[in-house]
């Protein structure tokens, strides 16, 4: 080290141990003034420093002052050393920040412990989220009675009565009507002509039965129950069909026989339109089993649809388990339900004005306000509410999510809460390779079938609103072994979502408790009148090895 010029080679140096905090807080020039003697500038100053160097009291007080000052600095910064090591060890901000009080330090330690506990809880939540409900040993069992089997011989042989049906609506609505058509044909002992799909006015879809479903498979599966023919025979082409346009809701088998059987014997052909919800949901056991046989076995999608649907499902599953969401956020859904999307006043105004121009679109309870509908659980969940529900139930942010449904009103903006929280967010357009969707362009029913396949195959399924697709998939997943299906408890959970003063951990706990029994566990159809067996297949279509086991 170079020596200062004003020191001779034999000059003895004195060293003082000073805490590093003092050194860091004192400028370099000040240190020089402490360690090195300045040049003589005047006699007074020279006399002062000359006297000070030989005076023991001067050094004693200097050492005492420096030691006291150092201890004071260390005491003031003592709390700093209690803070866990900074993740940025080269940063000096750890030592230059303002003093942390003991209360703040305790709060920090408590929050650190809470954060560790919360991380552990999050890991546990993620594991629990993918767990499947206990199916209680229920499995499909379509054991028809001897009476049903013996009468099947006569039904299949009959060549005098034919039922023609025209089904309408979307793919899932058409599916439900086809199920009812098969059961009605069985009740009347008639042959069923392959159902005619009415051209959808909204989407302009001209798909036929064989475009959506596997016709040959449909005929084969039902060969012992109802005879399926592709068209009327020549002997009945000139017949004047008995046409029924307005069948009452929820009619019984007795009503159907009394109403149509004699006329069918006379004319030979019965034409039915608009079968949606016309047949009672509470039918004899054999007919309930027939409904399940049609819905879960006979109505298989056509080979092209099934092939692409399975490919999309495989692409989702290639990266692990995935969630399927059926989002009902289209413009017509907001108009028909009497609800608002909540994106902005401008979007709400568009929905309100369209509903005002076409009040016939509103689906019941027109005297209720939007707020009342919302609290009654009659409105679809928007993207923010779906996100909060998934987070409360423990869905990991890294989860793969497939969303089914039409284009949401508001476009991508309507999905922002979901896409910000869950980055792996896909639909059929994202998964399909170039050209794969071209054969399905402008065919809403075929596109809905693709959504159905990917959703049914998911590890967890959740609809944002009730509807034909949600109900159909719920029943299908139950029949497949009660795969996890989340039914949002909208009526009970929304008040907690609207309560901004409720802490988030408490809100999550409450939401989770509200859904403990809404995760796809076996539920008896007979516990509530009017339930569809294709949504609740227990107990008519599923049974256990132990006849004594109950839900």
**Poorly predicted ranges:** 1-50, 76-120, 547-551
| Strand residues, percent | 5-15%
Q: Helical element count? A: 23
Distance between the termini: 88 Å
Largest sheet: 6 strands, parallel
Radius of gyration: 38 Å
Mean pLDDT value = 82
Shape: elongated
Write down how many β-strands occur, each being a DSSP E stretch of 2 or more residues.
Answer: 13
Structural class: alpha/beta
Helical amount among residues, as a percent range?
40-55%
Transmembrane segments: 13-37, 58-78
GO biological process, one term: fucose metabolic process
Pfam families: O-FucT
Membrane topology: Single-pass type II membrane protein
Topology at a glance:
Layout: H1 20-25, H2 28-35, H3 43-54, H4 56-76, H5 93-96, H6 102-130, E1 139-140, H7 146-157, E2 162-167, H8 171-188, E3 191-193, E4 196-197, H9 209-212, H10 215-221, E5 228-229, E6 242-244, H11 253-267, E7 269-273, H12 285-298, H13 303-317, E8 322-326, H14 331-337, H15 345-357, H16 370-375, H17 383-392, E9 400-404, H18 416-421, E10 425-426, H19 428-431, H20 444-456, E11 460-463, H21 468-479, E12 484-485, H22 490-498, H23 504-514, E13 542-543
Parallel strand pairs: 2-3, 2-4, 2-7, 3-5, 6-7, 8-9, 8-11, 9-10, 11-12
Antiparallel strand pairs: 1-13
Helix pairs in contact: 8-12, 10-12, 13-20, 14-15, 22-23
List keywords for this structure.
551 residues, alpha/beta, six-stranded parallel sheet, 46% helix, elongated, disordered N terminus
Summarize the structure.
By secondary structure, the protein is of the alpha/beta class. The protein is built from 23 helices and 13 strands. β9, α18 and β10 form a beta-alpha-beta unit.
